[in-house]
Amino acid sequence: MTVKVSVVIAVYNPGKYVEDCITGLLRQSLTPDEFEVLFVDDGSTDETPARLDRLAAEHPHIHVIHQEASGWSGKPRNTGIDAARGEYVMFADHDDWLGDEALERMYDYGKANNADVVVGKMAGIGRPVPQELFRVNRPRATVENAPLIDSLTPHKMFRREFLAQHGMRFKEGRRRLEDHVFVVEAYLRAESVAVLGDYLCYYHITRDDGSNAGFQRFDPAGYFDNLREALDVVEELTEPGPLRDKLFSRWLRVEMVERLRGNRLLKLPEDYAEELYREIRGVITERFGPGVFAGVAPTQRVVAGLVAAGHYQDVRALAHWEAGIRPTGTLDSLAWEGGVLNIGFTSEYQVDGEPMTFRREGEGEDERDLLGLPLSDKALEALAGQGITLDAPVDKSDVDLVVRHRENAVQYYLPVDCEPHRLDAEDGSFRQRITARAVLDPETAAAAKPLDKGIWDLHLRIKSCGWSKETRLGAVRGEDAEAGRLAALTGEPRRLVLPYWTDGPGNLSLDVDQHTNKLEREAVSLMDPAEAVVEGSAVRLPLPLHVAADAGDPVQLRFERKNVGKFPADAEVSGRTVSATLPLEKLTGKRWAVRIGVPSADRGEAKWTRLPVDVVVSDDGTARVIDRHTPPAGTASGKPDPMPSAQPRPLWRRAAGRIKRSLTNQQKKN
């Protein structure tokens, strides 16, 4: 059978971190005869070579190539390309892992679109990854119609014949940004690039020991010499003009300007920060013109202009000011409607705990909104000389609300309608506050599919004037948010979606399909036993629960007593109550714990949760509901429960106890 995909993994001393990579490969939905794995050991000195050799002996589609240490990942990746037999070559790092269906989905998507390059959706665990690129599937992406240039790591599929046709290989030796050089060349030479955005293919992690190669402090001179090589590729394969400027602006934005902003600059040793600044200034003044500057956001353009003009102290002053910027959000309302959770919220930037303000200048048609940045007069003059203004495009400010899985970091953007508002501040300045409404449908939020079981956290991102910062939502909230925080039964088969406040900060999260036992905790906080009602054999309990549809497995109540029995009853959910008919003939004369059985799609059956109430049924069949923590005063008939007489232990058990104690005492003496 033809090998569809060759997975090439450069390996050097990963230790325990290679295990997640291995596990992900062994879980692939492609059959072992449809793909191969090429671990290229670049002179590891830990136990990894032996671990991989054992793995290869157990799995014929896994191969290990040992070579002398080359110092970086370029040479082992090239060795993998040379040995590969697959139609496509996929590169992965030894401490990352693949989604279970990643290879199959990426291969099928690439074949369906005749793609030379296939880019699969990524999640960053402890590290940033591109977001905008993966909002949708992009079957025919280019650097002109999609933000491909934001994704320059090599963790993609490349058609092997395409690599051979153009003689494409990674730069070798100890160096940086060899992946940028390789990937940007692939983008510019490819006839077709396909972006798969509806399945999480690649998990890009930060190791807890902080030893990821890309996180190590680099030599600025060598780093930016390597960056110039990526710029050389762009110059070779594009004509001067808007496209080249657009591509160059990516390196200006990500590799240069963002390194000189806020705490990212201030946390560096001062001598290293100055060296970094000098090397960045060298590239900017050599290679970038006004068209490149125009391709970045206003605040980034200001930093670039300050660097070009040699105003390092103003760069640092601006970094100190930006370090105080914080996004804030207020959760105004929550409301379920037809199985959809409507989320109302307000957001605003603050600086050092106070609302960020903008200046107004001019009148009428000449009125301008300006950034209030702490810059010297000489810096402002230098910026003006480059045609760089402090105009603030606040009318373009926007917000995103993202739902993110806590364990695997997969995330989805929710539909949001937002409206920016201007609020007058002192001295003729103004604040900007954005009101928004997001819609979360648990059955379609995951790229038109249901959210997986688990804990999903909600993250608010404010985008304005070149700032894009994220915060959690819910710690600050209005009364309507608490009033609308109902659990909901949605989907087919039914499952529970429970909005709750996290411990400590009190942020908004969702427990989907009873991943935890939070329902019991929430039932305690939301249910007032005094509001329970018993009328004849009917009991109504105050449990806020929204039901999206009538179809599906029923909710049940169960009345149970240890060593006596468990008696379930179908329940009806209406508004904020759960009602059921008590099986009085089975409950008479006893006190019973109450559990609620809520359908679980993952379990295929109900999950039972203890409620904070008990039902007491007297000898005459009269029932009442009490707090479960009410101490037992006696049986329902008023007579105390007879204490069971203590039965003497059997002789054999008493003898065994003596022998055990004797052995224990002897061991202590020894």
UniProtKB/TrEMBL annotation:
This is Glycosyltransferase. The keyword Glycosyltransferase applies. Pfam families: Glycos_transf_2 (PF00535), TarS_linker (PF22181). The keyword Membrane does not apply. Residues 625-651 are annotated as: Disordered. CDD domains: Glyco_tranf_GTA_type (cd00761). Residues 6-128 form the Glycosyltransferase 2-like domain. It is an enzyme of class 2 (transferase). GO terms for molecular function: glycosyltransferase activity. Its EC number is 2.4.-.-. Residues 220-319 form the TarS/TarP linker domain. Keywords: Glycosyltransferase, Transferase.
